[in-house]
Amino acid sequence: MRENGFRAEEIDTSKPHPARIYDYLLGGKDNYEVDREAGERLVAVAPEARIGVRANRAFLRRAVRHVVGTGVRQILDIGTGLPTSPNVHETALEVAPDIRVAYVDNDPIVNTHAGALLSADGTTGIALADLRDPRAILDDPDVRRVIDFDEPVALLLVAVVHFLTEADKPEEIIGTLRDALAPGSHLILSHATGDFAERGDAAAVYAKATATMNLRTRTEIERFFDGFELIEPGVAQVPFWRPDATPPPRSEEIGFYGGVARKLG
Asked: What is the pTM of this model?
């Protein structure tokens, strides 16, 4: 049996997947028992996990509204995860009606839910690809159908780079993506950290998942913005990046940094 071009057996439900754990922590229903068990283990060792993923989602929305407000009309969202309304294109449409969004994820189950991401007029698309192969993402026909790389693009790497090990060479991966972007493009990136509490036990939850969690310091995360100019307030804990409301209680414990930067000419 195939769903959206993928056989059911191609969807690995034997291991937790980061996108499905994230969906569970957000209160979604597109996850399996193995993902829910991993989510509960994560909350047990990192009690702020649930408010952290919600704060990260709120950061994403604020950052998208900011970037679209500067005039960018194309978004490449890598590590999309499962659809959670409001989606990126729904958030962007709050600011501008002519937005185009290409979603990318490496989990086939995301494609089975692609109907929540695709628009009838072809201004959104979804591709099955892996961040560890950035060239394949840039050359993917479903990405190219939506994104014109000769024009500014907002590149979203939200809660995904921390699943890259040092052996994956994350700075080189981001550099390949950066070099494909036109001047005026933006990078929106968030990343897990252990700067505010020892979170080795939380990272260990992902040892049996389809991708490991690799916590990094603020200085290490700032290097991912090389070649871009960070906008104020720079790299900050996600609840404190240009908040539009009072940050929720315990925000100072949240182990996510986020930042937005612009590629100059």
From this structure: 0.92
